[in-house]
Design a protein that fits this description.
The longest helix is centred in the last third of the chain and has 44 residues. The protein has 13 helices and 14 strands. The protein starts with a helix and ends with a helix. The radius of gyration is 33 Å and the shape is elongated. It folds into 2 domains: about 190 residues, no CATH class; about 210 residues, no CATH class. The strands form 2 sheets. Strands 1, 4, 5, 6, 7, 8, 9, 10, 11, 12, 13 and 14 form a 12-stranded mixed sheet that branches. Helix 2 runs antiparallel to helix 9. With about 400 residues, the chain is of the alpha+beta class. Keywords: Cell membrane, Membrane, Transmembrane, Transmembrane helix. It comes from Larkinella arboricola. Its main location: membrane. It is found in: Cell membrane.
Length: about 400
């Protein structure tokens, strides 16, 4: 009996026991679904994060004021003052890529905006910006226009609002442009509406009200605003040089003492993406571990079923051996059956895993994730199925090949 005939015999045995094959395949399918589903969801989330940062680019960086107390020499120093307006504007004027620098300041994160009888929840971010803010922050306008130099120079009461603010204050058939809204007691004319972002921003980018920078300073009254800076360079290869140039210039402006830490923080846009990529690596390891444990349980169940199959087919094994089948051919038949059952279950598990994984990533990313087809994990899933089939079938196959043909023929 050659390998081809042995394969046919194994397949005939699988077809003749359809119910057992289906139930056994379902056990494997559940294990593969958990493995491929988790890893697909992680890949989908990674894709969504990459897309979120793609517009901003890796050639941008943020300069922010200190977040807490600084320590030097084991002693806590006094609180470092934030970046003020003069320092931020000096940086923008002196930085070589000044046209690619935006200065902005957050007035409050709990503003309430009103229009006629409608009002938002008190969770709107009010930010003072310049005319470079939207382009550098990769924010697109759904309608209207950006701030003009005239708006900024004359501190006109104009505003660009987020999509959630617009949908809350205005009816669907109502055009927000040129309408006047009430922001912290002042009347501001809407000149632009931002496209919906959602996703990993948690909706914060949709709850924005942007006003000219000078207007924000006036709104702050006696409060001290912290001014943040975002810069970008035309070429990716210049990013590292630009960051170091920005660091040196900012230290000079802030009068940082030589040998002391920076009194500000510089974060490159791709750092958050890299951080999530590192986290997703650990999540993949955890997901693979969970899938492996599930598959281990499935393989033990399959081994038990194959042992029962050997016991039920003892007389058949005796007949085959008496007709000249070698122990090797007996082992091959049972191994082929185990592997084919695993592959059938694996294919079903891969299809379910891809669907469930993409569904999870879509829900978490609020519909901004792309549909991911994880070719690598599909191949891994098939290889794992073959490995599980070998693991589950090798002992029952070995036991079947060791049966004595005379004793097997006597088995009832």
């Amino acid at each position: 009996m050659n390998l081809l005939e042995n394969t046919r015999e194994g397949l005939r045995s699988i077809i003749s026991n359809r119910l057992r094959t289906i139930l056994t395949s379902l056990i494997i399918a559940i294990g593969i679904t958990s493995l491929v589903g988790i890893l697909t969801a992680i890949d989908g989330l990674q894709s969504s994060v990459d897309n979120s940062f793609a517009g901003l680019g890796a050639n941008t960086f943020d300069i922010e004021g200190p977040q807490d107390y600084r320590r030097f020499g084991g002693r806590a120093e006094k609180r470092v003052p934030p970046i003020d307006y003069h320092q931020a504007m000096t940086f923008k004027r002196r930085f070589q890529q000044g046209e690619n620098v935006s200065v902005y300041a957050s007035v409050t994160g709990a503003a309430q905006v009103k229009y006629a009888s409608k009002k938002t929840n008190p969770n709107v971010q009010l930010i003072g910006v310049d005319d470079s803010y939207l382009s550098i922050k990769a924010m697109k306008l759904q309608s209207g226009r950006n701030f003009s130099p005239t708006d900024l120079e004359n501190s006109l009461n104009v505003t660009v609002i987020g999509s959630e603010v617009a949908s809350t204050l205005f009816d669907r058939n109502q055009n927000p442009l040129n309408k006047e809204i009430n922001v912290l007691g002042g009347k501001y004319k809407v000149i632009g509406v931002l496209e919906k972002k959602g996703g990993f921003s948690g909706g914060d980018d949709d709850r924005l009200v942007l006003v000219p920078l000078e207007n924000a300073r006036a709104m702050a009254a006696n409060r001290t605003l912290t001014f943040n800076i975002t810069g970008s360079v035309p070429n990716m290869k210049d990013a590292e040089t630009a960051v170091e140039e920005a660091r040196g210039l900012m230290r000079q402006i802030r009068r940082d003492v030589l040998g002391r830490p920076d009194t500000f923080e510089i974060r490159r846009a791709d750092e958050l993406a890299k951080d999530f990529e590192n986290i997703s690596g650990y999540l993949r390891i955890g997901g693979f571990g969970i899938g492996f444990i599930t598959l281990l349980g499935a393989s033990i169940a399959l081994m038990n079923i194959m042992m029962v199959s050997v016991t039920e087919r003892t007389r058949e094994i005796g007949i085959r051996k008496s007709l000249g089948a070698t122990p090797r051919r007996i082992r091959e038949q049972f191994l082929i059956e185990a592997i084919v059952i695993c592959i059938i279950g694996g294919l079903g598990g891969i299809v379910l895993g891809i669907g469930i994984g993409n569904l999870i990533s879509t829900v978490v990313s609020q519909g901004n994730g792309n549909f991911v087809v994880p070719w690598f994990w599909m191949v891994v899933g098939i290889l794992v199925c073959v490995a599980v089939g070998l693991f589950s079938g090798i002992y029952p196959a070995y036991k079947a090949s060791r049966l004595d043909p005379i004793e097997a023929l006597r088995y009832e």
